[in-house]
């Protein structure tokens, strides 16, 4: 029998790519999403790619009664991959309570439901934002967490702590937090990808929308950082590589094998790329000249961060396979495809 996995935020960017990889690896997938930042049609697109349309349940995870009803009607769940969360750093500064309530109440409800309904494994979508500006680069998992710069980042730190404390007192639940660096790109079919609400905050959707003609120009936030070309450095990884890591993580939780009840992994390429290098890569693969200008720094930006992914390489047997150019190419194909479909 196929193992059943819940993917919360399953119609979102990383959730949808993970659902595809799970289905292609023989899991039965149930998506839960309140469609706050995504569309129900994504479930159909997942179905088109894989040939299997996943079950989609539309409700808010902050509603404990709905969650309870759901688990009463859906038994034998092998694990949960929890993506559903608000994720806009800037917005979180202006709406802290919304962020704390949504991101933390949903997580607490899920952990509660896991205890009530004997669900053994949780993969949590965390972020390299927990490290702040690390003193040593590349950053390893044992680098100290720094005080969060935004309520969004704080929900990831607190979320990890809530999980750690919960699994340490309940031997029936195990969890893995995956700290993502900067996921970009789209599925090679161009059927699914990142679909930001309104004006994108993240670099790559802003680049592709500008090249497509939806935005006038990209603002490069600062070129006076202490980096080789003066722009910030990040570790951009292909979203399909990232999605595959979730399959490995959930498999590991299902196997159990006397490991620590709570584990943390960095997911990145190990390579730092500047904003200008990211633009060059886009221009190379798209053949388009991008309109951009250098402006002032964005408040709260980290100067430079990239992962030491060797722990995930060794323990999970996972590493990134796609290049920056592959990721940019697929992001561009997706932008073109989605705009045509939306016309
Ligand atoms: C941040 C967090 C990440 C979080 C994500 C959620 C860090 C290190 N990273 O990503 O954990 O999950 O927000 O949104 O805290 N840039 C421009 N012009 C733009 C947009 C971005 O120059 O219009 C630059 C930024 O200054 C940055 C880089 O591009 O140097 C990447 O920015 P972005 O895609 O927003 O991601 P992070 O801020 O790294």
Task: Kindly list the characteristics that best describe this protein.
343 residues, alpha/beta, seven-stranded parallel β-sheet, two-stranded parallel sheet, 11 helices, 17% strand, binds uridine-diphosphate-N-acetylglucosamine
> Based on CA inertia axes, which overall geometry fits?
globular
**If helices are DSSP runs of H or I spanning 4 or more residues, what is the number of helices?**
11
Bound ligands:
uridine-diphosphate-N-acetylglucosamine
Radius of gyration: 19 Å
Helix content estimate: 40-55%
N→C terminal distance:
42 Å
H/E order of the elements?
A: EHEHEHEHHEHEEHEEEHEEHEHH
Record field, number of beta strands: 13
Q: How much of the polypeptide forms β-strand, as a percent range? A: 15-25%
What is the mean predicted local confidence, pLDDT? 97
The order of strands across the largest sheet is 3-2-1-4-5-6-11
